[in-house]
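Handover notes (outgoing to incoming on-call)

Open items:
1. Autoinducer 2 import system permease protein LsrC: sequence verified, structure written out, both below. Nothing else pending on this one.
2. Nothing else urgent.
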Amino acid sequence: MNTKKKSVPAFVRKPEFVTIIILIIMIIVVAVLQGNFFAPSSLQNMIISWTPIILLTLGQAVVIISGGLDMSSGNAMAFMLCILAGIMKSATPGSGVIALLVCCLAMVGIGLLNGVSVAYFKLPPIIATFATSYIYLGAALFIMPSPGGGCANWMRVFYKFSSVENMPSALKAFGDKIPTGVLMIVGIIVLWYIISRKKLGRYIYAVGSDRNIAYDSGVKTVKVQIMAYLFDAFCCMLAALFLVGQNQSGSARLGDALTLKSIASAIVGGVSLAGGTGNVYVAIGGAAIISLVSKLISFSGINSDYQTLVSGIILLVAVSSSAIIRLVKTLRAKEGKESE
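Autoinducer 2 import system permease protein LsrC structure tokens:
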């Protein structure tokens, strides 16, 4: 008598499967509530509003997989945004070049400061990056105590090609259909695809799984974690470039809510806070879910006094789903061993 149980497809057993199912359900529900959800203009506006959180989530996911955490990503982005807006003058094209160079230097400094604090000095990631977040916030407020600044005309290309004056008509038409944010996200995906196929990508997962074992195996764990934080800082810089092109100004407080959202998005996307597991690509779905929550609440007509409560409950369910799947999987594995 054959007692074999029907095997569940491997993909279904992964936490990422839950993320995709939740995302599909969210899209269906929001689409029903919002009649023009799939209209080209509506989709474009959604992508534009989601771009900063998606970029920060991609960077956050890589850091978490490496065994770290970045509590400073929102303030780091705001710091670079204030650098860009503070240096640039709308009537001076050359100011955009200077601002971009200074921003790149700041990006490297942010990645190194976070990475060295966590990897070299072995400070707890949540403590180290929480401390550096105040450094970035203080620096941002020093540069720009109140919202303001400017943006060189050509730097608006980081938002939309069509928003740049004297842009060739072909590029303007392209920009009207595809925002630059989409190109940024695709660029980060391609960059991570290349990294994940190299030793560095495998080492990031290895260090996140067990730093000591990775070190004993000859992996330069300090270098690997610093590279993960540099990748994260690069994603934050792209978000800052997008926002300065969109708003043509800067604000030190613009990233306040984005840090926790990026962490929640990565976890909803199936990335484990324990490190070593997770899919960076699916983390984009987590960012989309987090962004759709506010839309769902808005269109459902829930009283504004209860919106924060409902939002928290939805996020808790989404975040805990992947953990529940992992727990069930572990229990089934134990049962399987005991029955042998």
